Amino acid sequence: MTTLQSRTAPPTAIRPRVVARTGLYTLLAVNAAVVAWFFAQAGFASNTLIVLGRLAGLYGALLMAFQLLLVARLPWLDRRIGMDRLTAWHRRTGIGVVWTLLTHAVFITFGYAQESSMDPVNQLVNLAETVEGVLRALVALALLLVVGATSARWARRRLAYETWHFIHLYTYVTVVLAFTHQVAAGTTFTASPAARAYWYTVWGVALGAVFLGRLVLPLWRNLRHRLRVAAVVPESDDVVSVYVTGRDLDRLPARAGQFFLWRFLTRDRWWQANPFSLSAAPDGRTLRLTAKASGAGSASLRRIQVGTRVFAEGPYGAFTTLHRTRPESVLIAGGVGVTPIRALLEDLEGHAVVIYRVATDRDAVLYDELRDLALTKGAELHLVTGPVAPDKLAPRELVRLVPDIGDRDVFLCGPPGMMTAVLRSLADLGVPKRQIHFERFSLAG
């Protein structure tokens, strides 16, 4: 293979992911301080349990609003952090929401029971019957516990995505009920006009972000670009590429390595969205996705007719050249995970080494394209075949293929098991985490 003799200038040292993450942490910390200040301004109850319960409720509300922001799919955040990481933060924040609101309910109930000499159960019933908004809060908490239970890993594996997503939509009902409870019974609302304005702003921004990112932006982009299927090309017995065209695609902010949630508006599939990466760098005229028949949604792509209307949400993902830290790179693909890798190779500058891991030569989807593209770009291409064991991407093998791997950015995409093994190998080789780029398809409601 030929290699490039000249090296591009090193990418900027300012890491977009660090900037976005720091911004989110700062936003949460500042709001936590503001909540504490308004809480102190409202005055304290004589009962310690009630004081702690009210504070837990306020922080639960703040975390719930922050949780909405994380899954609003705002382009600025998604391009810098990635939907998979934002989803993981959303889940961890959800655990915090459940525990803070449970603490709020328990402490408030026991605190008032202590003052009234009632048992906790009767006290809770009394609060629900006499205090406006408490019954709504109890319904919201029950819904939140159901959503949380179905989001646990053991339950998530047993539920179809559509079922889980439908249940998850009740989170928005929970938000509305929790907010009306806060308006009706929250001491900060009654104690200070400034606090009321603050909480209305917090909830308005959170819900507005969801409305903008999940509804307005996808609708606007699809109305503008009017996507349609231009061609359906079988790549092998179980792999197919779909070419999509539309208006003004040069203004669609898609980058190599990103993915869309695709809805092909046929009679039997219009309601189902599937995440597929772009398998070629966007050229302003056509978008291409390549998928393997691993489920009903991907298997049906082969039957899609040319001219079928397409509704695409996105582009999503931080698996792009935006996050490069080194002038040279390694791209490691496994199976159909080659699709974003192939697109990235087209977009990358500087010398690249491509490692394509498959079971057999017949499984090497888009290999001819990769070979031609590698030749054009002056990249090295290694096709690694064979069974899973022994591990052919173990540390010793990676160093043999790429002796200077520690000085390169590593882009990785493939089946979960392979990705886990390669990440372990990279850690054993001491490749800095900031140079390792990967993304998993992970959707949040």
Q: Which characteristics define this entry?
A:
elongated; 445 residues; three-stranded antiparallel sheet; Rossmann fold; disordered N terminus; Four Helix Bundle (Hemerythrin (Met), subunit A); Elongation Factor Tu (Ef-tu), domain 3
Total helical segments: 16
**Second rung of CATH, namely the architecture of the largest domain:** Up-down Bundle
Give the number of domains: 3
Helix residue percentage? 40-55%
Strand content: 5-15%
Structural class: alpha/beta
Q: Count of DSSP E strands? A: 11
Run of helices and strands: HHHHHHHHHHHEEEEEHEEHEHEHEHE
On the 0-100 scale, what is the average pLDDT?
A: 89
Distance between the termini: 46 Å
Poorly predicted ranges (pLDDT <50, ≥5 residues)? 1-10
Rg, Å, rounded:
26 Å
The side-by-side strand order for the widest beta sheet comes to 9-8-7-10-11
CATH topology of the largest domain: Four Helix Bundle (Hemerythrin (Met), subunit A)
**Name of the top-level CATH class of the largest domain:** Mainly Alpha
Describe the structure.
Keywords: 2Fe-2S, FAD, Flavoprotein, Iron, Iron-sulfur, Membrane, Metal-binding, Oxidoreductase, Transmembrane, Transmembrane helix. By secondary structure, the protein is an alpha/beta fold. The protein has three domains: 16-213, Four Helix Bundle (Hemerythrin (Met), subunit A) (Up-down Bundle), CATH 1.20.120; 226-316, Translation factors (Elongation Factor Tu (Ef-tu), domain 3); 323-438, Nucleotide-binding domain of ferredoxin-NADP reductase (FNR) module (Rossmann fold, 3-Layer(aba) Sandwich). The protein contains 16 helices and eleven strands. The protein has helices at residues 16-42, 48-70, 75-81, 83-116, 120-130, 134-151, 153-156, 161-168, 170-185, 187-191, 193-225, 296-299, 338-347, 367-377, 395-401, 416-428, and strands spanning 228-234, 239-245, 259-264, 274-277, 286-292, 310-316, 329-334, 352-358, 380-385, 409-413, 436-438. The strands form three sheets. A five-stranded parallel beta sheet has the order 9-8-7-10-11, with helices on both faces. A three-stranded antiparallel beta sheet has the order 1-2-5, with no helix packed on it. Strands 4-3-6 form a three-stranded antiparallel beta sheet. Helix 16 links the parallel strand 10 and strand 11 (436-438). The chain is elongated, with a radius of gyration of 26 Å. The protein starts with 15 loop residues before the first helix and ends in a 7-residue tail after the last strand. Mean pLDDT is 89; it is low at 1-10.
